[in-house]
Amino acid sequence: MKTAKGKDKAKNTKEALKPVDDRKVGKRKAPAEKGETRKEKKAKKDPNKPKRASSAFFVFLEDFRITFKKDNPNVKAVSAEKAPYEEKAAKRKAEYEKLMDAYNKNLEEGSDESEKSRSEVNDEDEASEEVTIPINNAEFCTLPIVFCLLSYRFLKSFA
DNA sequence: ACAATGATTGTTTTA
DNA sequence: TAAAACAATCATTGT
């Protein structure tokens, strides 16, 4: 049982953030450079050896892939689909770093009264600015009436 | 590490 | 030397 040679972790942290096209997919090392030719390596595998059982997550993936294909028949490139999500992820990361900065600052300055949480991260836009529309009392009273009148006329138009 | 998957791409083999 | 075939790589979670 050899442990990981640090390969997985390094790749996951560094390469995973790059877009697909920039990642070194398929850029493997030549077997010859490792002293073995392809056939030798291929012969080393036993086709009769049973594959290990899929975990629950992989069983879920079976269904998910089918479902996703059915819902998105024309999606070939995952990059385009991934783009908006990477965008959101980047935003969350920025938000996180900002919060961490404030958090660390609070730790330095003192620990009392640190509850300020939390403006939830809405993925829609950075339009999280308060959209409170100021109206005066007159508007507050007349708006529902106007709305009712317009609704009435609209419904009446079908009769 | 390794199960499934498919696009991608370097390497090897074959013509 | 070109095209064809092959194999590594990526991401994902759970074991």
Protein model, in words:
By secondary structure, the chain is an all-alpha fold. The protein has a domain of 57 residues. It has 5 helices and no strands. It is flat and about 70 Å long. The chain starts with 6 loop residues before the first helix and ends with a helix. It binds a DNA duplex (15 and 15 nucleotides) through α1, α2 and α3.
Quick synopsis:
With 159 residues, the protein is an all-alpha fold.
Radius of gyration: 29 Å
- Report the end-to-end length measured between terminal Cα atoms: 79 Å
Please state roughly what percent of the residues sit in beta strands, choosing from under 5%, 5-15%, 15-25%, 25-35%, 35-45% or over 45%: under 5%
Structural class designation? mainly alpha
| SSE string, helices as H and strands as E | HHHHH
The oligomeric state of the chains shown is single chain
Average pLDDT, all residues: 57
Please count the beta strands (DSSP E, at least 2 residues each): 0
Helix share bin: 40-55%
> Any low-confidence stretches, pLDDT <50, length ≥5?
1-21, 111-137, 139-149
Question: Main β-sheet: number of strands, strand sense, barrel status?
Answer: none
Shape: flat
